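REQUEST FORM: STRUCTURE PREDICTION
Request ID: SP-0412
Submitted by: Lab K.M.
Chain count: 1
Length (residues): 143
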Amino acid sequence: MIKEFHTTSVEETENVGSELALSLDKSKPHFIAMYGDLGVGKTAFVRGLASVLAPSARVKSPTYTVVNRYNSEKLPLYHLDVYRIEDEDELYSIGFDDYVNTGICVVEWSENIPASIPKDAIRVSIEKEGENFEGRKITIEVR
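STATUS: Completed
RESULT:
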C-alpha cells in the first residue's frame, strides 16, 4: 500500500508522522526507512511519530550521536541518522541489530544502507516540491 501526502509547513509534516504512528501496532518492532535530501523535513516527520509513540521526547537530529533513544509505553523508539556510516561493519558496530529487533527503529538516510533494510520496512520518502520548493511530497509505502 502506498500513500502520498502533500504538506506546506513543518506542522503538517509532523502531522503526517503522527498519523503513521497511530497506525502502528505499538507492541511489536517496526523499521521505518526514511529517504530524502538534506533539509526536507525528516526530523520533523520523526517529531510527529514521537508525539504519539514517546510524547515526552524532545526530538532532535541524531547527526552527531548517530542514535537517539526515546522511551515509550511499550517499545523504545530509536532514531538513527546513518548519513556518516560508511560500511556494514560500521553500521553493526553501533548496535544496529539490537535497535532493529527491539523497538521502533526510524532511520534517516536509509539510502546509505540498502542491504540492511528489512524487507518488511515501512519506507518514507520526502521530496521538496513547488515553484520555490516550499512544499513537501511525502510518500509512505507499507508492505
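NOTES: The chain has a mean pLDDT of 92.
Reviewed by: T.R.
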